[in-house]
Specification:
Layout (H helix, E strand, L loop, with lengths): L4 H8 L4 H4 L11 H23 L11 H26 L17 H16 L5 H24 L8
């Protein structure tokens, strides 16, 4: 039985919160050269998302070997950090900057936890294709998230913590 769909569902589910509770205090979009760079990076990010969210649907979860068990534990820890960041977003008034704010000294915790989650999933699913898809996701998602965080911090009149 293919259970890879659970990998996709578990990481994607909290994003549905944005439909009901969209962020507040979002900064204006980038302009000029920065906007072009953002669009290019977002295209790379979307390509990585397509692979990372689509590929698991065709695999089954493997857990018998020790590496897969360790990877499953890493997935669970990364997912816990990801969910904690979503809870923080809701509890702190749905402010845009909170989606990207550091957690326990970890910069961009939502972006990095998603990357770690998919890296570990490539082992759990025994998918050689998920590994490069995750690298593509990281190449777009991390810089896009960093740009968004910096934009959210650019208004000194707002308190984002």
């Amino acid at each position: 039985m293919l259970l890879g769909w659970a990998v996709t569902l578990l990481i994607l589910a909290p994003n549905a919160l944005l439909l009901r509770w969209p962020p507040r205090e979002a900064p204006p979009p980038e302009k000029g050269v920065r906007r072009f760079a953002q669009v290019v990076l977002q295209a790379i990010e979307r390509l990585g998302q397509l692979g990372c969210l689509g590929l698991p649907l065709f695999y089954r979860i493997h857990s018998p070997d020790p590496a897969a068990k360790v990877a499953l534990a890493i997935m669970a820890a990364a997912l816990a950090v990801y969910y904690l960041c979503w809870a923080r977003y809701l509890l702190r008034g749905r402010r845009y900057a909170v989606l990207f704010a550091p957690l326990w000294g970890l910069q961009l915790p939502m972006a990095l936890s998603a990357i770690v989650y998919f890296l570990a999933a490539s082992i759990v699913l025994n998918s050689v294709w998920l590994l490069p898809a995750t690298a593509v996701l990281a190449a777009g998602h991390i810089p896009v998230s960093l740009m968004a965080y910096r934009r959210s911090q650019s208004d000194p009149g707002k308190e984002h913590r």
